[in-house]
Amino acid sequence: MIKKLILLCALSLPLAACADDVAPFSGEISAQALLNDYDKFSEYYTTFAPTSKDIALMQKLKGKELVVLFGTWCHDSHREVPKLIKLLDESKVELASIDYVAVGYNKRDDAGIAEAHDLQYTPTFIVKDDGKELVRVIEKPTGSLAQDLTQGL
Predict the structure, then answer these.
(1) What is the model's pTM?
(2) Measuring CA to CA, how many Å separate 30 from each of 33, 54, 68, 144?
(3) CATH of 23-150, one of 3.40.30.10, 2.60.40.10, 3.40.50.11500, 3.20.20.70
(4) Are 79 and 125 in contact (CB under 8 A)?
(5) Phi/psi of residue 70, each to 5°?
(6) Residues paired with residue 102 on neighbouring β-strands, in sequence order
(7) Domain-wise residue ranges, the chain
(8) Which tens digit of pLDDT belongs to each residue from 50-100?
(9) Chain centroid, CA 133 distance in Å
(10) CA 65 → CA 37, 75, 100, 128, 132, distances in Å?
């Protein structure tokens, strides 16, 4: 029994040593790179068809800042982040800025952006005006993404 346990531990050591090699991407990324490099994001982008009402709602974000915190490994991010990109593309709304920040499994990034925004769940979409947080949408919207992002604006 002890020999089997030792063998099991010895066999698992190489897996533990490789764990860092398979860590998900973490850091800032462009929408185009995200769609080009990650198939699930591209697939959801292609299949999502926003309504004309949602496209019109996105104009309420004009001049606002948007921070998108997500995981390339996260199924909710696979679904919601491409929706946002498509809504932005089709509405052509002019944002003051947009930052897409991918986080690791620990929900952190090297620049500390996720921690500065108290990230708990992915994805998290934060709408700001002049640095002040106005809206936060966490994981999945209660209505449509466009409705939740523009609620109260």
Answers:
(1) 0.85
(2) 5, 23, 11, 23
(3) 3.40.30.10
(4) no
(5) -155, 170
(6) 27, 70
(7) 23-150
(8) 999 999 999 999 999 999 999 999 999 999 999 999 999 999 999 999 999
(9) 17
(10) 25, 25, 11, 5, 9
